[in-house]
Design brief:
alpha/beta, 31% helix, 379 residues, 2 domains, SH3 type barrels, five-stranded parallel beta sheet
């Protein structure tokens, strides 16, 4: 996000998407009536001339709401968050438990793909536990020093513009229990949700149909070239074979006026945006490890803590790309919350980042990884 988008002047106005929650009373320095908002809300900033405080209205249903109030400016939010990070004290146990993981992931900072196959058939899937979706998730080092704090992504606001929705947006759900939600959506609304056909370099098995079960690619070299040419939003190597989700396969589902439900990593959200496709990206944020244990009775405390910690790191890594962050007490409530987000984000207009709206023409070639996380190919 460019800081130039936020240069202030007399009565400057802009539209922003909030990347955090505000209860309107959190900041003791608030000079007037505050405006409450949640992550993902669109705000019409009607006066951004002050360095610390902006005047804004929420945008609801594509139009400004009547409610008017004061919100902290981008610079104030980021200053406050950096000050908070300086005060954060991680326990020795927490740091030691993750130190080796941080070092290893820094060495593998180019690994941007999930090890799980995009819509790989259930009988062939890897371990389907909640924890698996984090196996190759990039993380940032949170050493409690000035350098690391300044390098952290501070989620505040992003400038957005409204665009007419000309296609059915794909759906990416991240966080615990996403598989359950994905399956329920496609089972309950088969006319609204569908899965794309992945590509693979492996040989077809008996009764498998090309273009229906998989797109069987004639050679590894061809698929590697297609990956290099940005035709895929995500790719993985498993048992010497490549598997991938192509941009075109997502568009094929959209052409049927269905939401393409994608089982991909957070990095794929950005790749879709760069390809000119803005998915509905929903992040399931667990309130606590205890909540995870209440939902999944098979989890023990240590497992729940690991999932919780990794989820928070996933939020830190990809939070700026989320359309909405949802929480609920039960799975049923969570399911209904996500359905509400999808309904609200299904048109006829959508808000997209200003920079992405003007530069969504090229992508960076994805890195393919094998089952143990090693990087392959020259992409």
């Amino acid at each position: 996000m460019s800081s130039a988008s936020y240069s202030t002047g007399q009565k400057q106005t802009l539209y922003v998407r909030a990347l955090f929650d505000s209860d309107a009373y959190h900041d003791p320095g608030l000079p007037g009536r505050g405006l409450a908002f949640s992550y993902g809300d669109i705000l019409h900033v009607v006066n951004a001339s002050d360095e610390d405080w902006w005047q804004a209205r929420r945008v609801e249903g594509g139009v400004d709401s009547r409610e008017f109030g004061i919100i902290a400016s981008k610079s104030r939010v980021e200053r406050r968050e950096r000050a908070r990070l300086k005060q954060v004290k991680f326990s020795n146990n927490q740091y030691v438990a993750h130190e080796d993981l941080y070092n290893k992931r820094r060495r593998k900072k180019n690994l941007i793909f999930s090890r799980r196959f995009p819509f790989y058939k259930s009988k062939e899937r890897l371990n389907d536990s909640t924890e698996d979706m984090y196996n190759s998730m990039p993380t940032t080092n949170n050493h409690n020093n000035e350098s690391s704090i300044s390098n952290n992504v501070i989620l505040s606001y992003e400038t957005v513009v409204q665009k007419e929705l000309l296609y059915t947006r794909p759906l990416v759900i991240l966080g615990p229990f996403k598989d359950r939600i994905n399956d329920d959506l496609m089972a309950e609304y088969p006319h609204k949700f569908g899965s794309c056909v992945p590509h693979t370099t492996r040989e077809p098995r008996e009764n498998e149909v090309d273009g229906q079960d998989y797109h069987f690619v004639s050679s590894r070299e061809k698929m590697e070239q297609d990956i290099h040419n940005h035709f895929f939003i995500e790719a993985v190597q498993y048992n010497e074979n490549l598997y991938g989700t192509s941009v075109q396969s997502v568009k094929d589902v959209a052409s049927q006026r269905k939401h393409c439900v994608l089982d991909v990593s957070g990095s794929a959200i950005k790749r879709l945006q760069l390809a000119g496709i803005w998915p509905i990206a929903v992040f399931i944020k667990p309130p606590s490890p205890r909540w995870l244990m209440e939902i999944n009775k098979r989890l023990v405390e240590e497992q729940a803590r690991k999932i919780y910690d990794r989820t928070l790191k996933q939020e830190q890594e990809f939070g700026e790309y989320f359309t909405a962050v949802v929480q609920a007490q039960t799975l049923d409530e969570l399911y209904n919350e996500i359905k509400g987000v999808i309904k609200d984000q299904s048109g006829p207009f959508m808000w997209v980042p200003l920079e992405e709206a003007s530069s969504a023409t090229t992508t960076t070639p994805p890195t393919t990884t094998n089952g143990d996380g090693a990087t392959n190919g020259d992409s």
